[in-house]
């Protein structure tokens, strides 16, 4: 394994990684708004010898390349966007933007990839120039736009994955300490589809429900049908979950509403299950029709399931074993969250691993106002991304 000095160099960069991460954490930007974040990233990258930097790729995406001798093209990707969450922690580097926070660790992902870019740029200057390394700093992972697209799709359409032989990404893992990573071959994160349903009755006076069609009561018939789908139309052995996140109906306590709106998500690993559950959610809303109302549903298709390539996972495990031989490698799917790196994984061999970041004093879940990380994970992430890239470039077919 040709990774001599990578761990040591990553550890030397730890203070810089913390500085980068805290700057990004303090100045978060939401999906499709990452203008200043992208400018910061590009500024850092342009200081690195040998780096060719392109901005505004698929929106606010930044692409940087280290081009070497003829060989493979390895892609390393990080996402940059923050979430519409109000931070509740009194850090000196807490978000200064009200209602916006890096609650999913994308600030750490970006800092880690800048660290890996620094290490690989130095190796490039030292003569390690087999193949090409392409760094993708992606906007808009957390949100689809009106066209149903996220940043990964826009970057792919802009050519960011063209010619890629293999791609890697990482994600913060709040259930593991920084002395562990989690890996998994095959389906590892869920597909994501969002549904919006309407149930229409006739409304009426709260004193005379028998004179109209009560949309709230119709909803009470539809909900069990929705919640029962995963155990009946998908095998209990197949990971799948349907969740309802919003219900809106009514404006007064004595008025039966005419319309109730319901929004939720469908998540699973299997494409056949995905297709079936999408169909049956729409059918569940039609239950309202049996009782004199009208149910309708539309589904917006989101990310596919993230399917990790076994060869890419083997390279991640190899890099982890050599760089951190005393650390744990946990094997298992990452859950039913979704990740738009899945779109990139459909274009080439690819894998994402989860990097332990749990602070010593407790677990702080992703997408919560209290989310925080143990920054010891930063140098480790940079070393692993640089190491797996070096291994991928030098691997013989």
UniProtKB/TrEMBL annotation:
The keyword Manganese applies. Keywords: Hydrolase, Manganese, Metal-binding. It is an enzyme of class 3 (hydrolase). The Mn(2+) ion enhances activity. InterPro entries: Amidohydrolase (IPR017439), Bact_exopeptidase_dim_dom (IPR036264), Peptidase_M20 (IPR002933), Peptidase_M20_dimer (IPR011650). Gene3D superfamilies: 3.30.70.360, Zn peptidases (3.40.630.10). The keyword Hydrolase applies. Mn(2+) binds at residues 104, 106, 142, 171, 367. One of its GO terms (molecular function) is metal ion binding. It comes from the Bacteria. Its EC number is 3.5.1.14. Its cofactor is Mn(2+). Residues 195-285 form the Peptidase M20 dimerisation domain. Pfam families: M20_dimer, Peptidase_M20. This is N-acyl-L-amino acid amidohydrolase.
């Amino acid at each position: 394994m040709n990774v001599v000095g990578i761990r040591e160099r990553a550890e030397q960069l730890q203070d810089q990684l913390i500085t980068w991460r805290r700057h990004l954490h303090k100045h978060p930007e939401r999906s499709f708004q990452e203008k200043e974040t992208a400018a910061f990233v590009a500024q850092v990258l342009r200081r690195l010898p040998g780096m060719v930097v392109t901005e505004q790729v698929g929106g606010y995406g930044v692409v940087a390349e280290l081009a070497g001798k003829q060989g493979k093209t390895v892609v390393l990707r990080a996402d940059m966007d923050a979430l519409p969450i109000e931070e509740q922690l009194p850090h000196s580097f807490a978000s200064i933007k009200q209602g916006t926070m890096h609650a999913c660790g994308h600030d750490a992902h970006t800092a880690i990839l800048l660290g890996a870019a620094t290490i690989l740029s130095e190796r490039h200057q030292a003569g390690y120039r087999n193949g090409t390394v392409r760094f993708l700093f992606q906007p808009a992972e957390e949100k689809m736009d009106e066209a149903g697209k996220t940043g990964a799709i826009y970057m792919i359409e802009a050519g960011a994955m063209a010619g890629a032989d293999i791609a890697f990404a990482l994600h913060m893992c709040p259930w593991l300490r920084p002395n562990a990573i989690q890996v998994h071959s095959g389906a590892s994160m869920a597909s994501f589809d969002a549904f919006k349903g309407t149930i229409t009755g006739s409304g009426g006076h709260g004193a005379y429900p028998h004179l109209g069609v009560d949309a709230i009561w119709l909803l009470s018939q539809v909900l069990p049908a929705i919640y029962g789908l995963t155990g009946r139309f998908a095998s209990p052995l197949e990971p799948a979950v349907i969740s309802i996140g919003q219900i809106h109906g009514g404006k007064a306590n004595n008025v039966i509403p005419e319309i109730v709106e319901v929004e939720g998500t469908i998540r699973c690993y299997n494409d056949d299950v995905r297709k079936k559950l999408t169909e049956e959610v729409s059918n569940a809303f039609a239950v309202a029709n049996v009782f004199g109302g009208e149910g309708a549903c539309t589904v917006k298709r989101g990310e596919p399931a993230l399917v990790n390539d076994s060869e890419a996972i083997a390279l991640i495990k190899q890099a982890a074993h050599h760089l951190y031989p005393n650390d744990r490698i946990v094997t298992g799917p990452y859950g039913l969250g979704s990740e738009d790196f899945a779109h990139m994984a459909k274009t080439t061999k690819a894998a994402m691993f989860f990097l332990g970041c749990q602070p010593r004093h407790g677990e702080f879940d992703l997408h919560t106002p209290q989310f925080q990380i143990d920054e010891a994970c930063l140098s480790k992430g940079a070393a692993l991304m640089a190491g797996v890239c070096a291994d991928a470039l030098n691997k013989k077919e």
